[in-house]
Inverse folding.
C-alpha cells in the first residue's frame, strides 16, 4: 500500500510539473486540463528529459494505456503498447530510436528509424513494441479534434491478446500500392479514410528526394525545397484529413511570407533557424534540432535558416485537407 501511495504521489508531482510548463499528458485528460495555444517553441531540451521521466513514472497498462505527452509518445526498452483501433487516423514521425522498435498495423511490421513517417489509417489495428535497448520516441499526430467534433469517435481493443500477430513484412502495403499493383487497385479512390493503406515513408528515401530537388533547383519561395508524402492509393494528400510535408531550407535561405487556412505543426529534423510570425508586431520563434512549434491558421509566417553552411530540414503536419474538402482553403502571399 505504501509503495502504491508513493507511486501516486510521484505521478501527481510529475503532472504538476507538466502543468507549470504548459505541457499536456494523455493521462491527464479532463474537462479542466487545457493546452496553451499561444505561439511558442517546445524545446527538445525541455521535453526530452520529461519524456524519459514519464517512462519511469507513468506505467503502460497502469496509469496510462499510451504514454503521450506534449505531442510525443515514448515506449521504453522491453515495453509493448497493446493493440487497439479507433476512428481517428494517425501518423508517427520518429525522433529517437535505435531502429529495432516497430509498430504493427493491420498485420504489417513497420520498423521505426529516426526520420521515418508511419501512417495508420482510420480503424486500423495497431500496437507498438520496443525489443531494443534504447527508448523510442515519436511525434504523434491524429485527427482526433475533427472526430470528436463530428461525434463519431469509436474504439476497440484487440480481442483476446495484447499484441496482434505479424502477418506481413515491412513494406507490404507500399509494394501492393506501388507503381505495379493489382489490377483491382488501378484508379482506386478512397470510399472512406479506412481505405488508406498503412505505409512507412523511410527518411533515407525522403532525404534523397529533397537533395535531388535541390540539385535541380526546384524550390518554393515560400517554403524552400518542399515535398509532400503522397497517399499511395490516390496520389493525393497523405490522408483525407491531414497532409505531411518535409522541407529543406538551404544554407542562409530565408523564405517569403505567406499565410493560409489550416494550422501547421512543425518538428525540426535538423538545423538551426527561426520562423517569423505576422507582418506587424512580428514574433520570432527560434528553433534548433528536434524542437517543435505550431503556426495557427491564417497567420503570416516565414522561415530562415541561420546556418551559412548546412541545410535545415523541417517536418510538418497540417489539417488543410479538411478545408480543401469543403472548398474553404485559402492562401495569401506576401
Amino acid at each position: 500500500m505504501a509503495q502504491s501511495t508513493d507511486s501516486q504521489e510521484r505521478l501527481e508531482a510529475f503532472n504538476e510539473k507538466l502543468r507549470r510548463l504548459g505541457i499536456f499528458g494523455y493521462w491527464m485528460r479532463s474537462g479542466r486540463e487545457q493546452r496553451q495555444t499561444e505561439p511558442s517553441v517546445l524545446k527538445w531540451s525541455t521535453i526530452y528529459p520529461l519524456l524519459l521521466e514519464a517512462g519511469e513514472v507513468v506505467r503502460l497498462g497502469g496509469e496510462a494505456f499510451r504514454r503521450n505527452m506534449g505531442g510525443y509518445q515514448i515506449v521504453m526498452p522491453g515495453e509493448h503498447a497493446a493493440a487497439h483501433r479507433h476512428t481517428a487516423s494517425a501518423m508517427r514521425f520518429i525522433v529517437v530510436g535505435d531502429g529495432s522498435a516497430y509498430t504493427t498495423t493491420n498485420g504489417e511490421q513497420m520498423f521505426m528509424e529516426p526520420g521515418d513517417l508511419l501512417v495508420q489509417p482510420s480503424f486500423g489495428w495497431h500496437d507498438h513494441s520496443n525489443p531494443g535497448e534504447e527508448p523510442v520516441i515519436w511525434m504523434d499526430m491524429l485527427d482526433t479534434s475533427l472526430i470528436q467534433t463530428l461525434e463519431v469517435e469509436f474504439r476497440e481493443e484487440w480481442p483476446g491478446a495484447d499484441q496482434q500477430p505479424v502477418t506481413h513484412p515491412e513494406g507490404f502495403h507500399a509494394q501492393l500500392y506501388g507503381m505495379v499493383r493489382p489490377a483491382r487497385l488501378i484508379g482506386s479512390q478512397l470510399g472512406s479514410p479506412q481505405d488508406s493503406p498503412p505505409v512507412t515513408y523511410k527518411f533515407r528515401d525522403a532525404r534523397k528526394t529533397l537533395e535531388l530537388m535541390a540539385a535541380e533547383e526546384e524550390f518554393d519561395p515560400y517554403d524552400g525545397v518542399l515535398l509532400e508524402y503522397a497517399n499511395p492509393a490516390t496520389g493525393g494528400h497523405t490522408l483525407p484529413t491531414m497532409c505531411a510535408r518535409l522541407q529543406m531550407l538551404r544554407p542562409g535561405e530565408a523564405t517569403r511570407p505567406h499565410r493560409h487556412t489550416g494550422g501547421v505543426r512543425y518538428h525540426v529534423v535538423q538545423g538551426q533557424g527561426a520562423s517569423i510570425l505576422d507582418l506587424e508586431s512580428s514574433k520570432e520563434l527560434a528553433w534548433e534540432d528536434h524542437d517543435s512549434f505550431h503556426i495557427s491558421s491564417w497567420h503570416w509566417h516565414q522561415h530562415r535558416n541561420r546556418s551559412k553552411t548546412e541545410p535545415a530540414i523541417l517536418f510538418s503536419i497540417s489539417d488543410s485537407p479538411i478545408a480543401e474538402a469543403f472548398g474553404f482553403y485559402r492562401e495569401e502571399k506576401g
